[in-house]
Amino acid sequence: MKLLHKFIIKSFLGPFFMTFFICVFILLMQFLWKYIDDLVGKGLDWGIVSELLMYASFGLVPLAFPLAMLLASIMTFGNLGENYELVAMKASGISLFRIMRPLFVVALILTSIAFYFSNNILPKTNLKFYTLMYSVKQQKPEMVIKEGVFSNDMENYSIKVERKGKNNNMLYDVMIYNHADNQGNVNVSISDSGKMEITQDKKFMSITLYNGQNYTEGTESRQSTAKRYPFRRESFQKEVINISMKDFEFNRIDEKRYAGASKMMNVSQLTSQGDSVFKEYKLQLWRYLTAFSYISDVNRQVSWLSNPIDSLRINPNIKPDSIVDFDKTIAALSTFEKAALYQRVIGNVRSNSLALTQQFDEMYMRKKSLNSYAMEWHRKFTLSFACLIFFFIGAPLGAIIRKGGLGMPVVVSILMFIAYYILMITGEKFAREDAWSMVGGMWLASFVFLPLGIWLTYKAATDSGVMNIESYQALFKRLTKVRFFNRHKPE
Q1: Long-range contacts for 417-423 (Cβ within 8 Å, ≥24 apart)?
Q2: How far apart are CA 50 and CA 40, in angstroms?
Q3: Contact of 185 with 193, CB cutoff 8 Å
Q4: Relative to the CA of 435, which of 4, 46, 339, 419 has its CA 20 to 30 Å away?
Q5: 396 near 468, Cβ under 8 Å?
């Protein structure tokens, strides 16, 4: 049995590592497709891009583990079934449970590794990824000069070029507006040619102009009654303009800015921070509930009704538990006093409704922030436990399908994982919105797929006809044959 265990484990580990890296690569391509607009055209060094992709790859590992487990399980048992090795084992008296036993131990080890990664490594890489990604988003795009269009990428300068040289960095018919004085278009330089070069220290953009003129308009002259605007024109053969590239430098954001986010914490930190946030939430909720002086509002209304003669004076001696015959008191009021009373009540209701709406929105955002800690706490367990669930789904499916390679196993795995992912994000949404309990929402996919895996394993181990795909193929052929003969039966 030890040799058999080694053979099965060896047959599993190869497809697992292969599919794991394939899954990470595919998910990474999805990441690039999502953030391509934030990366392209900003002149980022390859070192920064490589670092960002590395952190993004670490963030995709929790999703790649279950998918690789599902694919590898189906491929392993599919290969064993396709080569009749699984049939030979069963014929020797070895049950499917005993065949799955060594891989079950491997699945437990991989589940533990996935949890350790999610709890200890992923928070650190998430912190570095989000800070680096935010820094990249804040990075200004690389300056690109287009023909016939004003470029305003550089601060205090607006540049227009009619034509650019194809084989060199020469510019032709250049127009540059200098807005450093914040006085509008009062300083402009025009030249028939020029070139742009970045200095060696990459701190300045050097623009060299040839054969041009500078036009400068002065402020309004008030020396006489007539308005005059001084004007100065200077010709030059060569002029150099150095523009600072400080705004185009890449600046990293301090990691402390995102250190308190839920994705950057492990289980113990999430538990501690979640408890603190929950206590603060309950305290703030109590403050909001007691912020409205409903009793004092009723007191003022009762006082007003109890003194209809002096409607402008509020009697402070009326207590909240005073009994007043409202119908009799209102009937004694004049039409004007009734209208004033109704307007006063309507105003109080509207102001209270507006305040309640604002405070409800604020408490809703606080509750969503509180839910994020609980969701992240459960997610570390659900994604790790999914490795074990997909093993019990993939192994029996591979024994049933009896196809190895990357054909049918990939199709089945993708469909199963898509169904799991849809249930997972649906449950997370309901949990985030407090429509379901946190446990019911975050573990919805596990509650659905775990019984499915147990049922599939049992049916495959007992060689049930329900799970025999050949029986369905034979039934389909018989139905097709019966329909054919009924259609061509002589009357």
Answers
A1: 417/66, 417/67, 417/70, 417/390, 420/66, 420/386, 420/390, 420/445, 420/449, 421/445, 423/448, 423/449
A2: 14
A3: no
A4: 419
A5: no
Instruction: Give the largest CA-CA distance in the chain.
Output: 117
pLDDT tens for 411-437 read: 888 888 889 989 999 998 898 888 888
Q: Are strands 187-198 and 204-217 parallel, antiparallel or unpaired?
A: antiparallel
Structure tokens at 87: 């049939």
Q: What CA–CA distance (Å, rounded) separates 369 from 274?
A: 9
Residue 136 corresponds to which tokens in the numbers above?
């990249």
Beta partners for residue 194, in sequence order: 171, 209
How far is CA 400 from its chain centroid? 37
Q: How far apart are CA 462 and CA 399, in angstroms?
A: 12
Give the strand pairing for 170-178 and 157-164: antiparallel
In the block, residue with structure tokens 């049950």: 95
Q: How far apart are CA 384 and CA 63, in angstroms?
A: 9
Q: What is the pLDDT of residues 115-154, one digit of tens each?
A: 999 999 999 998 888 888 887 776 665 556 778 888 776 7
CB atoms inside a 10 Å sphere around CB 409:
27
CA-based torsion, 453, 456, 459, 461: positive or negative: negative
Using DSSP, state whether 209 is helix, strand or coil. strand
Torsion sign across C-alpha atoms 323, 326, 332, 336 = positive
Q: If 0-12 CB within 10 Å is exposed, 13-18 middle and 19+ buried, where does residue 15 land?
A: buried
Which tokens go with 386?
A: 């999914």
111 touches 387 (CB < 8 A): yes
15, containing H or E segment: helix 2-39
Q: Round the CA-based radius of gyration of the chain to a whole number and report it.
A: 37
Q: Which two tokens stand for residue 65?
A: 């583990």
Contact in structure between 110 and 387 (CB atoms under 8 Å)? yes
Determine the Cα–Cα distance for residues 150 and 322; give it in Å rounded to an integer.
Answer: 76
Q: What is the pLDDT of residues 37-90, one digit of tens each?
A: 777 766 677 888 888 889 889 988 988 999 999 988 888 888 888 888 887 888
- Residue 102, both tokens: 């060594």
Instruction: Check residue 252 and report its DSSP letter.
Output: P
